What we know:
The chain is of the alpha/beta class. The protein folds into 2 domains: about 30-70 and about 295-320; about 80-290. Helix content is about 55%, strand content about 10%. It contains 13 helices and 6 strands. It has helices spanning about 1-30, 30-55, 55-70, 80-95, 115-125, 155-160, 175-185, 190-195, 195-210, 250-260, 270-280, 295-310, 320-335, and strands at about 105-110, 130, 150, 165-170, 215-220, 240-245. It has a 6-stranded mixed beta sheet with strand order 2-3-1-4-6-5, sandwiched between helices. The radius of gyration is 29 Å and the shape is globular. The relative contact order is 0.15.
Amino acid sequence: xxxxxxxxxxxxxxxxxxxxxxxxxxxxxxxxxxxxxxxxxxxxxxxxxxxxxxxxxxxxxxxxxxxxxxxxxxxxxxxxxxxxxxxxxxxxxxxxxxxxxxxxxxxxxxxxxxxxxxxxxxxxxxxxxxxxxxxxxxxxxxxxxxxxxxxxxxxxxxxxxxxxxxxxxxxxxxxxxxxxxxxxxxxxxxxxxxxxxxxxxxxxxxxxxxxxxxxxxxxxxxxxxxxxxxxxxxxxxxxxxxxxxxxxxxxxxxxxxxxxxxxxxxxxxxxxxxxxxxxxxxxxxxxxxxxxxxxxxxxxxxxxxxxxxxxxxxxxxxxxxxxxxxxxxxxxxxxxxxx
Length: 339
């Protein structure tokens, strides 16, 4: 008897589940629900898009595009602050004191930290060509065989083998200073919105720390310009330079030591993956690893709450969705709950 009762109970539950699925399918096909959901989705999309376009970084980048299209709308050329040349001269003196004539240099730092300006100034001081790697695939091993060249990119130290270079120059400045500089120069303003600058900085700091070599620091008040030729404070920023020892930078061995110190075993990680593990405890790499996953949190929350409030008040025809759900799905759920 007990066995028959349990079989009947399972059959009722199975039938109830099938009935709920059929009910949801029928409700979904209701014209009022379809049109209501479409309207609600459109409302949410417009709210999110409007919020995204209002973000400071996006507005700065749109201004930059307008400046390029409309001649003489604003200042089109930027004057490099004198302090950049002074910083480059200070780095050059370090080479002279060591009797070193570099063949290749690497410059790294946050987007907006002034890598391009500093690399250009160093190029003038040392008679070297500047190679910007912005349009190269940093997840692949690059060719650094070109002599008398300065390479610059914000992921250079964390992705590439560094023994190609005679010295490394790391622009170490506060995150907020770099973000504000990008907003002022406008070009690439969207980066401050889509990238997690704090994460970029943590992994970048670790990449430079996991490099052998004597370190020299140069305090500075500015390493770039705001796109309008004006001076700007850099806060506690500094240039950190490491010269390649005779045994090489040995960043691979240092990263392995760091992995073991954090309790990880070497499992064939790429250089950036290993640095990510040490800095964040997760295995990630590539440009997408630094995307700001909370970029639209505020906009999505505003859109959802606004859309639901509008629906509950009968706005935009979305009340049909709630009415149908209240009349059909919710009673069925309550009925199943008390079976």
